[in-house]
Design a protein that fits this description.
Elements (H helix, E strand, L loop, with lengths): L42 H5 L10 H11 L6 E4 L1 H13 L5 E5 L5 H8 L3 E5 L18 E5 L11 H10 L4 E5 L20 E6 L12 E5 L1 H8 L9 H10 L5 H19 L4 E2 L9 E2 L3 H10 L4
Parallel strand pairs: 2-3, 2-4, 4-5, 5-6
Antiparallel strand pairs: 1-7, 6-7, 8-9
Helix pairs in contact: 2-7, 3-4
């Protein structure tokens, strides 16, 4: 550790993405969409790369807002929803502020909490691995709800989200909907009613654009303005804005339905092997298995991640 590294990060553990290999693997470990998309490219976009991109992604934000039935002022676009998560910490967390979530869930919440010197409170899961309802009354600055949850695939009912929002109006609630298209339930309409709500979405999963790095945050225009105030000046390049504007209008329903059917087929096959598989609203499955590490290694040997 250099003399310049922040002392508060002495025991910091960075986020570790899913394993990546150049060799040929069956790659299931990062929940990517197996179906690629074809987008026609306008040569004028390449010819314009000598110029900076539009700093506020106005056209892209307007298109996604219209599709969601809200206003452009209620949307921020980022380099994946991960960037918007970081902006949330930059804009709203002072050292010592408390954040909470129910485990197991997306580990980036904890990583960012430690990075920004927040006090991280982890609630044990409910018996069915759903959200712990004790979180509803928790006295914290921000609550994170990942739904469908990663890694469980469990969907949090909108009534529960409303309870969390209403219990403490001075508490910010982040609803992370990276996999929402696979369960067809969203909290986005609630931003019109609740000023303490931010909903996150991404084009990495359902839209087959993980390599593009494009995500969105939806919320009250005051919250969005505050997030915009701390973002990088040109956080989305011209190519991302161009492809993103086309992707907003893509019909992804066929691929989504194929994934849902395949998810249920695999679930049934695993249950026929006498394995316990949790119901999932995402594009992946969680199962209970005693010798998980051994199975993981055996699959890896067979080029399956």
């Amino acid at each position: 550790m250099s003399i310049f590294y922040r002392k508060s990060l002495k025991n910091f553990k960075a986020y570790i993405p899913g394993e990546q290999y150049n060799e040929v693997y069956v790659k299931l470990n990062t929940n990517e969409n197996p179906y690629s998309v074809n987008i026609a490219f306008d040569k004028s976009v390449i010819d314009s790369l000598n110029k900076y991109p539009e700093p506020l992604s106005l056209q892209l934000r307007a298109k996604i807002a219209k599709k969601c039935g809200i206003k452009r002022q209620n949307v921020i676009a980022g380099a994946g929803s991960d960037e918007i998560l970081r902006l949330i910490f930059q804009a709203f967390i002072d050292p010592g502020d408390k954040i909470a979530y129910s485990v197991p869930t997306y580990t980036l919440y904890k990583v960012l909490g430690k990075m920004f010197n927040a006090k991280v409170i982890e609630f044990k899961p409910a018996r069915d691995l759903g959200i712990n309802r004790d979180i509803i009354k928790s006295s914290v600055k921000i609550v994170f709800v990942c739904t469908p949850n990663s890694p469980t695939g469990i969907v949090t009912d909108l009534d529960v989200i409303k309870e969390i929002l209403e219990a403490r109006k001075e508490r910010l609630v982040i609803v992370d909907e990276a996999y929402a298209e696979f369960c067809k339930i969203t909290a986005i309409p609630l931003i019109k009613r609740y000023r303490n709500l931010i909903v996150l979405r991404t084009f990495s999963k359902s839209h087959s654009l993980a390599g593009l790095r494009l995500g969105f945050g939806f919320g009250d225009n005051e919250l969005i303005d505050e997030l915009l105030s701390v973002k990088d000046s040109y956080n989305l390049n011209r190519i991302t804005q161009y492809i993103g504007s086309i992707a907003v209008d893509m019909d992804i329903s066929e691929n989504v339905e194929k994934i849902i059917r395949e998810r249920e087929r695999v679930k049934k096959s695993l249950e026929e092997m006498d394995l316990f598989v949790y119901n999932s609203g995402s594009n992946f499955l969680l199962l209970r298995i005693k010798n998980a590490k051994e199975v993981y290694q055996k699959l890896k040997e067979k080029k399956v991640l």
